[in-house]
Amino acid sequence: MNYRHAFHAGGFADVIKHIVLVRILTYLQDKQAPFRVIDTHAGAGVYDLTSDEALRGGEWLTGVARVMQARFSETTLPLVAPYLDIVRAFNPQRELKAYPGSPLIARALLRPQDRLTACEVEPKARKRLIDALRRDTQARVVDLDGWVALPAFVPPNERRGLVLIEMAHWQLFAVVSGEEPPCQRQPRAACRRGGRHRRAPGKISAPGIQRRAAGRRRRPELGGSADRQPAVDAGRRTKGNPPRTGKATRSGRRRPVQA
Q1: Distance CA 41, CA 171 (A)
Q2: Please, is 65 exposed, middle or buried when counting C-beta atoms within 10 Å of its C-beta (0-12, 13-18, 19+)?
Q3: First CA to last CA across the chain, in angstroms?
Q4: CA dist., res. 46 & res. 104, Å (int)
Q5: How does pLDDT run across 110-131, given as a tens digit for each residue?
Q6: Disulfide engineering: 35 pairs with which of 92, 103, 122, 160, CB 3.0-4.6 Å?
Q7: Over the stretch 134-176, which tens digit does the pLDDT of each residue have?
Q8: What is the rounded CA–CA span in Å between residue 26 and residue 100?
């Protein structure tokens, strides 16, 4: 399936997602320690709302256009004001013509000590993103599938940060339903970082995660291990295994105790 975000840029889903993104990054700024933002499916960076794709989709008309014209209460305005300011910065003439994607919204909230890693494999979108972040020493665009490359980037050197996974809806459905997304067709693909190779994550399914979580929650009953130990020792003696006494030799066999 060919997904192009230009048809959906600035829509209702983008607005909600980016307001939450801004709120999290604002929260991370409360501490002076640096953080890193990792965007696994970065996109083109900036989207032209006057393009044929945006006009055909028209989602931005009921999304960001309505939000920019809305009147917020005194309690709500401080929560969305940073997001609105970023969108206005890309439209200095007050006419809504451009909409920033997640990597540029995150870049607008980075402090000098913070960093951004943006993954994008689609050639045209990656070129536009590189142009938007050209000569930016705090941001890096990598030609890797973010879903496969993520284990190579976490934990970041800053030890704090945010991972934004905004894959296409059909890819997210495949992951949640347990099907194999396209980027996992070669599960042995490796990601290179710092001269070392790390294997890509295996197939992820929600039922499998639930089973593993349920297994971790199981705890042995009190006294269970102590009660079972005599039975285990008796079983060893029944099978003819000698009791573990004395010191082990180099070959792994134990020396008998001398009387």
Answers
A1: 11
A2: middle
A3: 78
A4: 8
A5: 999 999 999 999 999 999 999 9
A6: 160
A7: 889 999 999 998 888 888 898 999 999 999 997 655 455 445 4
A8: 17
Flag whether pLDDT at 12 surpasses 60: yes
pLDDT of residue 58: 85
Amino acid at 1: M
Q: Which residue type occupies 133?
A: L
Helix pair 77-89, 12-28: axis angle to 10 deg? 110
The CATH label, of 3.40.47.10, 3.40.50.150, 3.40.470.10, 3.40.50.300, for the domain at 5-213 is: 3.40.50.150
3-class SS at 113?
Answer: coil
Written as one letter, the residue type at 235 is G
- State which amino acid sits at residue 59: E
Which tokens is 149 given? 């490359």
Cα separation, 60 vs 54, whole angstroms: 7
Using CA atoms, how far apart are residues 62 and 17, in angstroms rounded to an integer? 15
- Residue 191, H or E segment: strand 190-193
